[in-house]
UniProtKB/TrEMBL annotation:
One Pfam family per UniProt: MCAfunc
Annotated membrane topology: Single-pass membrane protein
A molecular-function term among this protein's GO annotations: calcium channel activity
GO CC terms, sorted: membrane
InterPro entries: Adaptor_Cbl_N_dom_sf, MCAfunc, MLKL-like_MCAfunc
GO biological process: cell surface receptor signaling pathway
Compartments reported by the entry: Membrane
Official protein name in the record: MCAfunc domain-containing protein
Length: 310
């Protein structure tokens, strides 16, 4: 199954991301991480690490790096790795929730692989390792020390065990509904499973194109689960509805997500704690909309301006 996941970039057409430089790609990854439905902790840890790299690259000015062959080639390799990383993080929002759960440890491995690859390319850019600038050297050393443990959350492990039950008819609908409540907060359970079934059809086509028999069989199993619940309307009224409520762990992850110039910030982000650490080191004004769904319903739109002192 890992082989098919390695083709993820081709599935999502990495070529569409051509033209974005490393700093812009990092901003896109941070934004995608903030809306991930699954692997939220992994996505946000990964995004925080990349923001450190983005801040370092901003000090060196990418346009200057690309003028010289010895720095242009490793930088292009870094950008290719970032494009694949964007597809990985974005997949945690767009793809079938059941599929992402079933592929849990494979995705964890891809996060580990992505960070190692990006850090490796960063180290071979000559100007970064040789530049005589104390602030740049300090930033580079901090990146090297910033290592994270990517893993599968305990709650996701429990749901993974449920959906991998060999008999789809014995799958616990209450556990599934609780897990899916964030992704589909307002839909009846049978309608949720219909949508999952549609997404799984696409995953099945992808697995066929890469001749991955193991993954094909796994997706068929997930489709059987979705069909069991989608076809029976009793689950609309019999399965308890669990409105999504942010838990303490996710609040902590949101606080640690770095400030970024492009994506919207959400309630719970600890701006005072992290703005100074992640602001680019040259003067810049960052104006980001703080968009909270509850605030938007009340017609409130808040803008946060963070300005570095001269």
């Amino acid at each position: 199954m890992a082989a098919s996941w390695d083709h993820l970039g081709e599935i999502a057409n990495v070529a569409q991301l051509t033209g974005f430089d490393a700093v812009r790609l990092i901003g896109m990854i941070v934004q995608a991480a903030s809306t991930a439905r699954l692997h939220k902790k992994n996505c946000k840890q990964f995004a925080m690490h990349l923001r450190l790299i983005g801040n370092l690259l901003e000090q060196l000015e990418i346009s200057e790096l690309k003028k010289h062959k010895e720095t242009r080639e490793p930088l292009e390799q870094l950008e290719d790795a970032l494009r694949r990383s964007y597809i990985l993080v974005n997949s945690c929002q767009d793809r079938s929730y059941l599929y992402l759960l079933a592929m849990g440890w494979t995705i964890v491995y891809q996060f580990r692989k992505a960070q190692d690859e990006i850090d490796r390319y960063l180290k071979i850019i000559p100007l970064i390792t040789l530049v005589d600038n104390a602030r740049v050297r300090e930033s580079f050393e901090y990146i090297e020390m910033d290592q994270h443990e990517y893993t599968l959350d305990d709650d996701d492990k429990k749901v993974q065990d449920v959906i991998m039950n060999p008999d789809p008819s014995n799958t616990d609908p209450v556990v599934l509904r609780r897990s899916l409540s964030f992704s589909y907060p307002d839909l009846p359970f049978n309608e949720v499973m219909k949508k999952e079934n549609e997404k799984l059809h696409l995953e099945l086509q992808h697995s066929q194109s890469y001749l991955d028999v193991d993954q094909y069989e796994m997706i068929q199993h997930l489709m059987e689960i979705s069909q069991v619940f989608a076809s029976d309307y009793q689950f609309e009224k019999d399965v308890p509805y669990y409105p999504y409520v942010i838990d303490n762990k996710e609040q902590e992850y949101n606080k640690n997500l770095p400030v970024n110039a492009h994506p919207a910030l959400r309630s719970g982000d600890n701006i005072e704690q992290h703005s100074e650490a992640f602001l680019p080191l040259h003067r810049r004004k960052i104006c980001s909309p703080l968009e909270d769904p509850n605030d938007m319903k009340n017609g409130i739109r808040i803008y946060l301006a963070v300005v570095r002192s001269p």
